[in-house]
Amino acid sequence: MTSLEEENERLRGLVDALRQDYNKMADESCRLQEDVSGIRRNLGDLGGDNSWVQQDVSDLHTSLEVVKGSVATLLESNSQLHQHFTNLDKSFTGLKEKSSKLVGFQANLTSLSSVNTRGPLVFNDVKSNVGNGYNIKAGVFKAPISGIYLFIATVLRPSTSGDAEVYIVVDGTQVTKSVPYESETGEGASCTCHVVQKLRAGQKVWTRAWSVGDIRLLGGVSFSGMLIQPEMETP
């Protein structure tokens, strides 16, 4: 059982206990009210000097008012606790619904391709697209729900290509980049960049490359992402 579920159960127990206490105090208040009314009627029938009895009745009436005040306070506390419990229960239900929604994608570039340096890299081989957040035609991921995401981009380029930089972009703003370096064997250059990013539902993420001259990418280039933690609303 998670800590949230344990807190949920604890609050349920407190609400039940408060309801029982309230019912007991309400019954006691009614009984005292009946006793006071009965004593007053008896005093009227007795007549004579009964000032001391009147004082006792007055004290009893004061005690009754104190009990009524305690009942009112308990009722208000019960109402506040019930509202807090309701909000917590809604948040818990919402979190379970969000947690049950998986989001993730994996897209590869499997053929030699020229790069559009002004727009997103579009990958021609989508291995998975859970939650349908990745737009296959545009090469752009759109967050279906708010939360914390992980994105990874890996790029390979021929050794004959010029220097290049690879970016991960969120809504048009660069959030991370990586520069490829030539391998010792001269077979090409590779780089990987990654970012853990908090996104609101609807924000867009893509990979972009830049080069001084023409740049061509080898097969094996990939872009992937996944939801790590959905956002939980505070009650």
Automatic annotation (TrEMBL):
What Pfam families does UniProt report for this protein, alphabetically?
C1q (PF00386)
Q: Which residues form a coiled coil?
A: 1-28
Indicate whether Oxidoreductase appears among the record's keywords.
Answer: no
Q: Where in the cell is it found?
A: Secreted
Question: In the UniProt record, which is one GO cellular component term?
Answer: extracellular region
Task: Name all C1q domain ranges.
Answer: 98-235
Q: Does the keyword Nucleotide-binding apply?
A: no
Q: Which Gene3D superfamilies match?
A: 1.20.5.1700, 2.60.120.40
InterPro entries for the chain:
C1q_dom, Cerebellin_Synaptic_Org, Tumour_necrosis_fac-like_dom
Q: Which UniProt keywords apply?
A: Coiled coil, Secreted, Signal
Q: Where does the UniProt entry say this protein principally localizes?
A: secreted
The protein, known as: C1q domain-containing protein
